[in-house]
Amino acid sequence: SPTPVKVAVTGAAGQIGYSLLFRIASGALLGPDTPVELRLLEITPALGALEGVVMELDDCAFPLLSKVEIGDDAETIFDGVNLALLVGARPRTKGMERGDLLEANGAIFTAQGKALNKVAADDVRIGVTGNPANTNALIAMSNAPDIPRERFSALTRLDHNRGLSQLAKKAGVTVSEIKKLTIWGNHSATQYTDIFHAEINGQNAAEVVNDQAWIADTFIPTVAKRGAAIIEARGSSSAASAASATIDAGRDWLTGSPEGDWVSMAVVSDGSYGVPEGLIYSYPVITRNGDWEIVQGLEIDDFSRAKMDATAAELVEERDAVKALGLIG
Ligand code: NAI
Predict the structure, then answer these.
(1) Is 15 among the annotated ligand-binding positions?
(2) CB count, 10 Å around CB of 163?
(3) 13 is in an annotated binding site
(4) What residues bind NAD(+), as annotated (predicted)?
(5) CA 320, 323, 326: angle at the middle one, nearest 5?
(6) Distance 196 CA to ligand 1 centre (A)
(7) Which of 295, 318, 272, 328 lies closest to 134 in space, CA to CA?
C-alpha cells in the first residue's frame, strides 16, 4: 500500500481540531486512496484532552488512518511532515491589547517556523488557520529560511466559501453554479470579496446581481463580519466551517483547483496587483500539484482598488508591528 502522508495539526485539542481531524482521517483531505499519519501538537495542559480525541479517532476505525502521534514538542511532532496545518493560536482574551496578541502569537509561530525549517519533509506545505492568520504565516515563513516561501499560505478559503454561499442565495442559484470569486487581502474585517470577475453560469456575477448597493453595503460586510455573527449566534467562534475550509484549501493546494475556476489563498506577494512584495495577501490563485500561481491580468476598477489597498495597508501595519517586536527580519 502507498506510504502514508504525514499531516501535522497544531491546536489539535481545540474546537476546529475536533472537526478537522475526523475529516482528514476519513479521507476528505487526501482522497480515498491515500493513507494518512496524523501528528498532533498541543500545549502541555491540553494533552490530556487530546488523548480523549485520539480515543475517539481510534473508535472511528478509519481505514485510512495509519498512525496518530501526539505531543507538545514541535520538533518531534513536525519531524518528516509533508503538510502542516497550523491551527493552534493564542486567542484574544479580555484586556489583551493588539500588540500583546501579536506578541503571544509571534512567539508560537516563530518557534513553529524554526521547527518546521529544521525537521519537516523536503516537500512540506504549510497552511495557517490560527489568527491573525496572514501575519502568523508571515512570521512562520520568515523563521524558516530553508523552506521556499511559496510553501506557506494563510486561510481565506472560509471567507471565499462564505462569499459563495451569500452570493448563491442572492442570485437564487447553487454554489456550484458560481466560479471565480475572489477574496483579496487579509483574513480580517478589511478583506475584500470581489464578485466583479466572478461568473454565475458563465455570466458576469456583478451584472447578474445588478445591485451595486447590495454588493457594497450588504454583501461585502456580511462576508467580512460573518465570524462575529457566528459568535453572536452560537456563543463560540466558527469551527466546523473553519475546519471544512481548511480541508478545501489543503485538498485544492495538493491536487489542484477545479478546471475553469480559481480559489482564494493568502500567499506571499510578488508585487502582483500593486500589493507590496513579501506580504501574505489573499489572491485568486490556480493550484496544481502543490504549486500555486496568482491569476494575472484582471481589470481592477477604482472601487476594487480602494478596498485592495486598504486591506494591504492593514497587513503592512501588522508586518511593521511584528518587525518592531523583532519577530521577523
Ligand atoms: P480553540 O481555542 O478551541 O483551540 C486552539 C487550540 O490551540 C487550543 O487547544 C490550544 O491549547 C492550542 N494551542 C495554543 N497554543 C498552542 C501552541 N503553541 N502549540 C500547539 N497548540 C496550541 O480555537 P479554535 O476555535 O480551534 O480556533 C483556532 C484558531 O483558528 C484561532 O486562532 C481562531 O481565531 C482561528 N480561526 C481562523 C479562521 C480562518 O478562517 N482563518 C476561522 C476560524 C477560526
Answers:
(1) yes
(2) 28
(3) yes
(4) 11-17, 105, 112, 129-131
(5) 160
(6) 33
(7) 318
Separation between Cα atoms, residue 175 and residue 248, nearest integer Å:
14
- CA nearest neighbour of 295 among 167, 197, 151: 197
- The CA distance from 66 to 5, in Å, is 9
Instruction: Give the Cα separation of 28 and 39 in Å (integer).
Output: 17
> Residues 237, 231: contact at Cβ < 8 Å?
yes
CB 169 within 8 A of CB 158: no
Tens of pLDDT along 92-111? 777 788 778 888 999 999 99
**Residue minimizing CA distance to atom 31 of ligand 1:** 130
Residue with grid cell 475529516, as numbered in its chain: 23
Residue 46 CB less than 6 A away from ligand 1: yes
Q: Do 39 and 9 contact (CB within 8 A), yes or no?
A: yes
pLDDT of residue 22: 98
Which residues of the chain carry a pLDDT beneath 50?
none
CA distances from 181 to 83, 170, 302 (A): 26, 14, 18
Residue 223 Cβ < 6 Å to ligand 1: no
Q: Is the CB of 153 under 6 A from ligand 1?
A: no
Characterize the bridge pairing of strands 178-179 and 291-294: unpaired
Dist. CA 15 → ligand 1 center (Å): 7
pLDDT score, position 91: 78
| Full-model pTM | 0.98
DSSP state of 88: -
> What is the pLDDT at residue 95?
79
CA dist., res. 119 & res. 168, Å (int): 43
**Rounded CA gap, 123 and 112, in Å?**
17
- Decide if 16 contacts 242 (C-beta within 8 A): yes
Residue among 23, 42, 126 to mutate when testing ligand 1 (max atoms within 8 A of CB)? 42
Q: Which residue has the cell 481592477?
A: 300
Of the candidates 237, 261, 264, which has an alpha carbon nearest to the alpha carbon of residue 248? 264
Between strands 280-288 and 263-268, the pairing is: antiparallel
How confident is the model at residue 100, as a pLDDT? 84
